[in-house]
Design goal:
The chain has helices spanning 2-14, 21-27, 86-91, 112-121, 125-149, 152-162, 166-169, 172-179, 183-194, and strands spanning 32-36, 41-43, 51-57, 60-65, 71-77, 82-83, 98-101, 105-111. A hairpin with a 5-residue loop joins β4 (60-65) and β5 (71-77). The protein contains nine helices and eight strands. It is globular. The longest helix is centred in the C-terminal third of the chain and has 25 residues, at 125-149. It has two domains: 2-149, Jelly Rolls (Sandwich); 151-197.
Length: 197
Amino acid sequence: MKLDLDGNIRHIMSQYIEIDETDWARCSSLFTYRKLRRREVLVRDGEMATNIYFVISGMLRLCRVDSDGQERTFHFSNPNTFAVDYEQFLRQAPSRYMIQATENATVAIVSLESLNEFYATFRFGERLGRVIAEKYLFLLSDRIQSIYTQTPLERFNNMKKQFPDIMQKVPQRQIASYLNISPVHLSRLKKADLMKP
């Protein structure tokens, strides 16, 4: 089983950096793995952000409860992506988001200590760190832009492209929260989408 998981995380990493057999043999010891059940919470809002979670299978979501007591979904993480409150992770500060499995999932876990060792030890370690930081920046920028510049229909269509099977994996209220619309509005968008020729 660990061999299969190592292969998955190596595949994820090889999308960003070159990693040969020698580097991988040393690198693979820096990861731990965890299986999650649907709805299982990996990190609670306010817990220290001590790890990056690379999604091997399943889907995770990042969310928080706002001042009105409403749960707000910020992002979903598919396989071959990661889930983290990256800014707080780098600061080793409390996470501003809860990270929860939306379905059964498997993640590879990397601590800040392991990540720093990876940067210092491996040929392309710092490049991977830069790519992770860039991905997080793009995700944050895209999210802000979508809320302020796109219509709910545009956000709905973009979500379906980014997360093709999300409707089967995630409750409607979480999807509506992610889109920053009401569940009733989401129902109307879904109905209109089904009626398209």
